[in-house]
């Protein structure tokens, strides 16, 4: 009996080994998903052979029935081997889809696939929390609302040091590291909105904000075409979403296809398009999603959105929309100019997640500038773990973190350069930075593009005398800058600032739009995760957004969740209007007041509560070698949080503006008038003003982390040098006036200007300024007395003559 079974098994194997390769008979010319000599392709060959489909390698990822010659039959089912073992369980047109990729990508990358459901690009926890906060802080500081239900994996991905570090951080910031997440409620009906208009936040999220998570393919517009799941990043898509490969069965004019049928990944993976090869994941793949919110993807490229259409093309057409926006081209981030891709800084944990939930991006991102650049006193490997990632207001101290050559699981990722030098640098949280190698006192960056660049850390630049005098003053002499500021606080010279997010959600007249989150759940019985018809997912309401005004220059400053001073830009400054099904406003230009939720965190909170509109600390990803000027912080009301020009430009926005024929005392003459600018009842200040001179916080500053806040009274008093620095520096011949006198003195008097000397100069300047004011007062007073006495004498003389 056993012999019969063995013989039958052998016959089965022999028959399956001779399965006809019908895939390429139709898809002849399609690009190999990877180079045939690569380890990945060799593994695919082996799996195909085991499944009895040698030479028919497509089935390892796509499934299907290669023995069939008819399209419908070939594009259905899968081989018995995969049903019994690991592999596709059906035909998968989009094998990267998270709904089924445990059977495809997960065969070789199980940890990353398991972690995908909990990473921030899938849960969108921070984005969701920001919206909920702007609509009245529906969940307070908790970050438990996400796109899907889920719980943490039992063990994080990463080194033991990293796992220990993150466990401690989660205990200190529990609101930002939830153990479980629940899917946000369903979109409300128009009838439910009549009873509770604040439920409109779920319409807003599902119709607008939740298009970009990796479990769906998002909005299919120019610049927004991308894959799903693993394919969101690892498959190339052009702006137009048109296929330009050699598969004859794919329509070259139909939008929504990948550029070519190839995987983009590390420096070892080559993608070929029209004879040109590239390695790594292009920045443009990231910007298909990272073009809203903090806009860090497009900002990295120097792109700042504009309302205007300039410039014109050769036929006189205005600028086309990209991500539904038009752009100005400002200064690019220096890392981008050097050829660095997003993945050259951001680690596997940043992208894939480590299996645990993150409330917002500070919880997900493990890298800091100092990880590669160090400080003027310490090389990166001399810094302690946690430096600049303290989540405290004092700099981290402790033993040097060193480097590592032991990469363990990281070696399996296939992107590790052979040259380990003196070891790989470590991130602030203890994971190896697999592209950054120490060589002596230099750092060699093995970029994903295949390019290698050598970096001299700040300590080395100081020793070699290559730091400017301004740089030495700012980074070396004034220790408070190094101890309290993020590097990008000075070196991010611009940031997109979209003030006032005016949201209208209209439920009148049966208006409806697609629910993108619900659509992402529709994955055709686990086959693709692609949505064919968004009209199947219409829900009540239509969202319209506009803004008050845009800026980009010199962002304001605040304290971020890590306890360091950073740039701050408008986050979700929601000014909400909800129109009911009867066409009447249920809420009009409404800003929620948060009482008992916003704790103050070291600043004064008004008795009536703080406005829910949010200013968000941010790394703008607009780094330049030369930092912003000292005056842009120390002599700026905006930098202090007092608003542009101290918030004095705008009239009282809590009052309606009517423009028509009026009397001199502003009484309107006509009876048929329109409100030109309807009031925003809870907005008495400019949207750029988030703290007043008494330290009272006027709006929320960061809604994710305990330490996020406007600058406290003590910090603002140290920062504020308006009228003090300029009393000396305004005539000095330097672009950076606040540094010019110190540099001038050091150059011509041979004086070393250190932090102590700087404080002495400032102190003496303040005293001198005070004495000058006293003397000026005495002189003015004496002159006034003298003039009055002369006047009295003349009048008396005239009286005597009369």
- Beta fraction: 5-15%
Categorize the overall geometry: globular
DSSP, total strands: 22
Roughly how much helix do the residues carry, as a percent range?
25-40%
Number of helices: 31
* Computed Rg: 31 Å
Question: Class by helix and strand content?
Answer: alpha+beta
Mean pLDDT: 88
Low-pLDDT regions? 1-19, 409-416
Could you describe the largest sheet, including whether it forms a barrel? Answer: 5 strands, mixed
Beginning-to-end CA distance, first to last residue = 148 Å
Write a concise synopsis of the structure shown.
By secondary structure, the protein is α+β, with helices and mostly antiparallel strands. The protein is built from 31 helices and 22 strands. Helices cover 30% and strands 14% of the residues.
